[in-house]
Amino acid sequence: MFKGSRTCKVYNTGHLTNLKVSCFFRMKLLLDFGLLILIWLVQLIIYPSFQYIDRGQMAQWHSKYTLLITLVVMPLMLGQVVAHGAGLLRKTDTLAIGQAILIAAVWTVTFLKAVPLHNQIQQGNNLQGNIQMLIQWNWPRTFLWTAVFVISLWQSKEGFFQR
């Protein structure tokens, strides 16, 4: 793929700073890209499809959906926090701080807006209204995660191809 950069070497000193920069940027970029793809699928396909699920089937489907999507999303979100937190420890600059703020905003919207709306949907309360609110409140998360990825892509031009 990239000449001379097939593997990421970690020196056995127990310090994250010894992780090669190119590997670090790849890991961070991969996590950000995974969340970017996932959030756009959720925003454009998954959440709108909730409107077409029979009201009687919604609770059963939604329960299964939230369990399975959590198994996919939570490791990515936690990995992103770890990767960006480690990045802040390595190098604190305006872009890294900006990304940390964007990621904190994603978590805030997720747990203060999206999770309560999912709970309301699960209980069958005002299904159409709560689905519409979920779609609307997911736009900020979509744009925030897109911005995080764009910044990581921008940063990658400096660190991605280092050996």
Provide an overview of this structure.
This protein has four helices and no strands. By secondary structure, it is mainly alpha-helical. It has one domain (16-159). The longest helix is centred in the middle third of the chain and has 36 residues, at 55-90. The two termini are 13 Å apart. 18% of the residues are buried.
Characteristic terms for this protein:
163 residues; mainly alpha; disordered N terminus; 4 helices
Topology:
Blueprint: H1 21-49, H2 55-90, H3 94-122, H4 127-159
Helix pairs in contact: 1-2, 1-4, 2-3, 3-4
- The Cα radius of gyration reads 18 Å
Query: What portion of residues belong to β-strands?
Result: under 5%
Largest sheet: none
Q: Work out the helix count.
A: 4
Number of domains: 1
Number of strands: 0
Parts with pLDDT < 50 across at least 5 consecutive residues: 1-6, 10-19
Give a brief description.
This protein has 163 residues and is mainly α.
